[in-house]
Write a structure and sequence with these properties.
Layout (H helix, E strand, L loop, with lengths): L7 H26 L7 H29 L3 H22 L8 H29 L2 E2 L2 H20 L14 H25 L25 H32 L4 H24 L3 H30 L9 H17 L4 E2 L1 H19 L2
Antiparallel strand pairs: 1-2
Length: about 375
């Protein structure tokens, strides 16, 4: 029997981690020959596309493993892979020279704004222009929003009002408590999504009347596992160079520090964002919602506890509380999202409202 030739995408996602690791080797050779000098212009310009390609390759390998092993472990593999990437990038910027203790906060807030306003707005707008209006499961959207509201307020708003420490921070004990409850909330949500009530997260016209059977587990694809590990290793190794390049670029452009959180969020969300937009164009709005809102929950539910654990261990400062302007945008986003996903049907107006809020968020990064 003739074997099917590998596609261009399959070849690229195998080559990308190899090229990224080789690129890291070149960086180390240059740094050692120049006595630890900062990366030059060529390396700084190349680091972002190389890192982006590596992140996309890691997500594709994680998705292949997820499809093979089925639920609930498939979703967990993909979530852990994205979390490792995000934590590596956040901690590299936080712990670099003249670190940014608020980067985790800025990244999490950027993820919420990008997902709940930018990505959701685009998906609804694209689907609305193509199909006039689209339907989705209200129960699934409500589950997403209830957990997202609790997680975002506990991690980004509560630190502004606790009295044990001054400023938008938490004590180590408070950080530990918030980390535990966020992991528990996200864990229960994953159980609901992948085991208990999977019907809440399927297309409304699928004809499902109860919980769908879980996918039969297959053998874990060892090649995908190997290249997933290689991709994640390349991201971790390149993250320090990425941090130096970002700080140099922001200083040269005169951009605010909060923009670095936006860059990290875009880097993490781009692969799933493209998939969500394609699903909306194919009239699969429910899948778009699952991809978009699921990304924001994973960021808060796992990334914040991971970063908190590292900062507590290292004894470094972690700023989590949002500014007053950012809190207004957060509450407005949660309110509009509740209205958008409360009816089970969308049109272009809802998408346009979300995009206006997203444009306001971008404007206020540079004109706070």
């Amino acid at each position: 029997m003739d074997s099917k030739p590998p596609s261009t995408t399959s070849i690229l996602r195998v080559l990308v981690p190899i090229v990224a690791l080789a690129f890291y080797g070149v960086i180390k050779l240059v740094a050692s020959s120049e006595a630890g000098a900062k990366p030059g212009l060529a390396i700084s310009l190349l680091i972002l596309p190389v890192l982006l390609a590596t992140v996309i390759a890691a997500v594709l390998h994680a998705e292949e493993i997820a499809h093979a092993i089925g639920e609930p472990f498939g979703t967990l593999v993909l979530t852990i892979a994205v979390t490792i990437i995000e934590v590596a990038l956040i901690m590299s910027l936080t712990l670099s020279d003249q670190g940014h203790p608020a980067l985790a906060r800025d990244t999490v807030f950027s993820v919420i704004m990008i997902v709940c306003n930018g990505l959701v707005g685009l998906c609804i707008l694209v689907g609305g222009f193509q199909y006039r209006q689209q339907d989705f499961e209200v129960e699934g959207a409500s589950a997403y929003l209830s957990v997202l509201t609790a997680l975002s307020v506990l991690t980004l708003v509560l630190p502004n009002y606790t009295r044990s420490t001054a400023g938008p921070t938490l004590t180590p004990g408070q950080l530990e408590f918030v980390s535990v409850v966020t992991v528990l909330l996200y864990g229960v949500f994953l159980y609901i999504q992948t085991v208990r009530h999977t019907e809440y997260f399927t297309e409304v016209d699928s004809g499902a009347t109860g919980s769908r059977p879980l996918k039969k587990h297959e053998a874990v694809p060892w090649k995908a596992s190997l290249f997933l590990v290689a991709s994640l290793l390349a991201v971790v190794l390149l993250s320090k160079t990425f941090a130096i390049a970002v700080k140099s670029g922001l200083a040269y452009a005169g951009a605010p520090e909060a923009f670095s959180g936006f860059l990290v969020a875009i880097l993490i969300l781009l692969p799933e964002g493209i998939t969500a937009l394609r699903a909306s164009w194919a009239n699969e709005l429910q899948r778009s919602i699952n991809l978009a809102l699921g990304s924001s929950l994973a960021t808060i539910g796992l990334t914040v506890p991971a970063v908190a654990a590292i900062t507590v261990y290292l004894g470094t400062e972690l700023v989590l509380g949002l500014s007053n302007v950012s809190m207004v945008l957060l509450f407005l986003t949660l309110l509009i999202s509740t209205l958008t996903f409360g009816r089970g049907r969308t049109n272009i107006l809802y998408g346009f409202v979300h995009l206006i809020i997203f444009a306001t968020y971008i404007f206020l990064i540079f004109e706070p």
